[in-house]
Amino acid sequence: MGGKSSEATAILPGPVHICGRVVILVILFALIAVPCLIFYNDAYPLQFSRLSCHSDPSDSSPTPSNNEQMKLERVLKAATMKDNTVILTTLNEAWAAPNSILDLFLESFKTGENTKHLLTHLVIIALDQKAYERCLQLHPHCYALNVEGVDFTVEAYFMSEDYLKMVWSKIDIQRSVLEMGYNFLFTDADIVWFKEPFNRFYEDTDLQISCDNYLLNDSYSLANNPNSGFKYVKSNNRTKQFYKYWYDSRIRYPNQHDQAVLVKLIKLSDPFIKEIALKIRFLSTLYFGGLCEPSKDMNQVCTMHANCCFGLESKIHDLNLVLDDWRHYKSLSLSDKSSYKPTWRSQDCRKKFDYHHIPKKMEHERKKD
């Protein structure tokens, strides 16, 4: 009996040996798993960033986050042109509601010249579930994106915390689209389209961007004031690096929106832009106008942007006027069109924009009147 007991004790491992083996296995697992996790996060930034995507309402079971990358890929693939280019826009519930910005945006494609077919290449990125549901009612290519901890169902007021999160989420998903190998033309939804714009873009350029003010008639001039609401970007190593740098720069420039940071990077000639040899050009307001600086030629204009405008109601009001001006132009005879001088009407936007830009002393005096 005593001999057998001693023999059994010698064969069976003690608790100390078992614990030691468990610790070794845990360490080995960590050494393998952590590098894999880092690699996956780098390859698929959307999964582990601030952005998480809604699943399709028809999906009853939870969908792993890596499937969201596949959903975005499917939507992009369905909408892409032959050269792997897609048109992107983003909106929330306030902009997607009936008789709001989305309706005007889509209508402009239908009333423009040679623009209706471009709707087949448009991907609408919805920032909340209500916007996604409305998109599905109107358009075939919709993608639902949620920014965690933020409610975008209501209008995000300029420079509010939610506004900043919203505009930076746009840059993040654009970066992901570039990483997937797609060129894109991004357009804010408060831009109405009149003519097919692609023949107005420059050939050998990585990033071309619209302007609030186009100065010196020079597409290279740093005096131009870029507006990130309309830009054509080719997917290559330079643009991928730049978008990552641009997005990360929100940390260096806190409490500033994407366009303000972009202006700093470009106008201050950030060394990184030279380092990666990024080719940037600015788009003329003759072709890509806005309420800041309207196009002076309806025979040439491709788009009009409700920039220099505060408030959703003001944008809707003035974009309706702009579309009416376009319809009037289209009703003219060819001879009248050739000599037509546009008189774009902008009422609410201009009044409110001027009011917000009154110096504080004058604004105080005005309030007393």
Walk me through the structure.
It contains 15 helices and twelve strands. The chain is globular, with a radius of gyration of 26 Å. Strand 3 (122-126), helix 7 and strand 4 (142-144) form a beta-alpha-beta unit. The strands form three sheets. Strands 4-3-2-6-9-8-10 form a seven-stranded mixed sheet. Strands 7-12-11 form a three-stranded mixed sheet. The protein is an alpha/beta fold and 369 residues long.
According to DSSP, the number of beta strands is 12
Residues in helices, as a percent range: 40-55%
CATH class: Alpha Beta
CATH topology: Spore Coat Polysaccharide Biosynthesis Protein SpsA, Chain A
Mean pLDDT: 82
**Major sheet details:** 7 strands, mixed
By secondary-structure content and strand pairing, the structural class works out as: alpha/beta
Percent strand equals 5-15%
Biggest β-sheet: strands ordered side by side in the sheet: 4-3-2-6-9-8-10
Radius of gyration: 26 Å
Number of domains: 1
**CATH superfamily descriptor:** Spore Coat Polysaccharide Biosynthesis Protein SpsA, Chain A
Number of helices: 15
What is the CATH architecture assignment? Alpha-Beta Complex
Question: Secondary-structure element sequence?
Answer: HHHEHEHHEHEEHEEEEHHHEEEHHHH
What is the approximate shape? globular
Distance between the termini: 109 Å
The parts where pLDDT drops under 50 for at least 5 residues are: 1-12, 36-64, 355-369
